[in-house]
Amino acid sequence: MENFFQRHAFLVEHTDTTMTRPLMNEIDWSHRLIGIKGPRGVGKTTFLLQYAKKNFNVNMGRCLYINMNSFYFQGRGIVDFAEEFVKRGGKVLIIDQIFKQNGWQEELCECYHRFPGLHIIYGTTTVERPNDEDDELNRISHNYVLHGFSFREYINLQTQGNLPRISLEDILYRTEITQKNILLKVRPWNYLQNYLHHGYYPFYLEKHNFTESLLKAVNTMLEVDILFIKQIDVKYLTRLKKLLYLLTLSGDNSPNVSYLAQEIGTSRATVTNYMNNLEEARLIHQIYKTSGQPKKPARILMHNTNLLYSILSGIPTDQEVMETFFINSIWRHHTVEVSKKTGVFIVDKDINICVCDRNKKKRKEDNIFYARYNIEVGRENDIPIWMFGFLY
C-alpha cells in the first residue's frame, strides 16, 4: 500500500493544474460511484490526477490514485484493496484503466455496497462490453464522458483566454453579435488549421511527433479497447484495421457494405458490427438518412479531423475536413442526419445546415443555414464554420 501512496504523490506532484477541463465543474462529485469515460488520448489520466491534486492533500492519505496496469492486481482484487484502503482511513479511491481488470464491474458493485463511506472514481473507455446495458453498475454509477479539446478549448489554451461556450441558437439566429463578441478578443480563423491537424488530442502539448503518438493510440484502441472488450479474436485485427482505412478513403460517398465485406474477407453483418465498434471507440461517425428505418449509414466520417490527417495517406479535401469538423463539433448535444439534399445535414430534426465553401451555392435558400469555410465573418444565414467549434 505504501508504494501506491508514494506513486500517487509523485504523479500528483508532476501534474499541471493550470488548465482544467470544463467537465471538472460539471460533475457532481458527491456521488459515491463516478465513471469517467473517454477514448484514448483525450486526457482521462491527467483529468483524474488533476481532481486529486486540486481537492486532497497528499500527506493526509484520504485520496489514492491507482492504475490497473499494475501487475499487483493480477494477484489481488479491487475489493480487497479497497477494504485495506478504507481501514487506513481512505475516503476517495481513483481507479484508472479499470476495464483491464477482469470482473471489474462486479467488484465495483461489491465495493459500493460494502463500503458506504468510500467514494470511487474510475476511468474507462467508451467501448462497452457486450450485453451490459442493463447491469447493476449502470444503475448505481454516475457516468460522464471526457471528449477531446473543442476548438474553443484549444484557443483558450493557446491564448490563456477564457472564451465561453455559445449555444446553437446564438450561432444560427444571433450570428453577428455573437461573432463580434468573440472577434473583439481573438481571431479564431488564425488557429483553425492547427486545430484541425493536431488540436483535438491533448498530447499535442507533449514534445513528441503528434502523428506517431496518435497512430499509436489508434492501434491501442483497436488492439485493446475493441478486441479485448468485444472479445474478438486477434487474428481478425487486420480486418478491423483495413476497414478503418477503407472508411477513411470513402470521403463523401455512402459506404458500400458489400464492397467492404469483400475487401476485408467477411460478411456484411460483421462489417456492420465492426463499424459500430469503431464508432464506440470514437474513431468514426455514422450518419443516417432522415427517413425510414436505417439499415446502413448514409455517410461515414472520421470522428475528428486529427484522425483524418493521420490515417489518410495523402491530403484530405477541404470539404471532407470541414464536414468532419462540423459533425465532431455538433454531435454531443444535437442529433445529426443526412438530408435528401446533397451536402445538407439536418440537425435536431428540422434545422438544415449546408457545409460549403464561401463561393458555393450563390443562390441561397432561406430555410438553409450555410456553414461556410474560408470566411471569418458571417451574416444572416451565412455562418463562419469556426463558430460551431464553440458549442462545447
Tell me what you see in this structure.
The structure is a single chain. The protein is an alpha/beta fold and 392 residues long. The protein has two domains: 2-145, Rossmann fold, CATH 3.40.50.300; 151-390, no CATH class. Helix content is 42%, strand content 14%. It has helices spanning 2-13, 23-26, 44-55, 78-87, 104-114, 136-140, 151-159, 168-173, 175-183, 189-198, 210-230, 237-249, 257-264, 268-280, 305-311, 318-330; strands spanning 33-37, 63-67, 92-96, 119-124, 142-145, 284-287, 299-302, 336-338, 344-347, 351-357, 368-373, 382-384. Strands 2-3-4-1-5 form a five-stranded parallel beta sheet.
List the helices and strands and how they pair.
Elements: H1 2-13, H2 23-26, E1 33-37, H3 44-55, E2 63-67, H4 78-87, E3 92-96, H5 104-114, E4 119-124, H6 136-140, E5 142-145, H7 151-159, H8 168-173, H9 175-183, H10 189-198, H11 210-230, H12 237-249, H13 257-264, H14 268-280, E6 284-287, E7 299-302, H15 305-311, H16 318-330, E8 336-338, E9 344-347, E10 351-357, E11 368-373, E12 382-384
Parallel strand pairs: 1-4, 1-5, 2-3, 3-4, 10-11, 11-12
Antiparallel strand pairs: 6-7, 8-9, 9-10
Helix pairs in contact: 4-5, 10-15, 11-15, 13-14
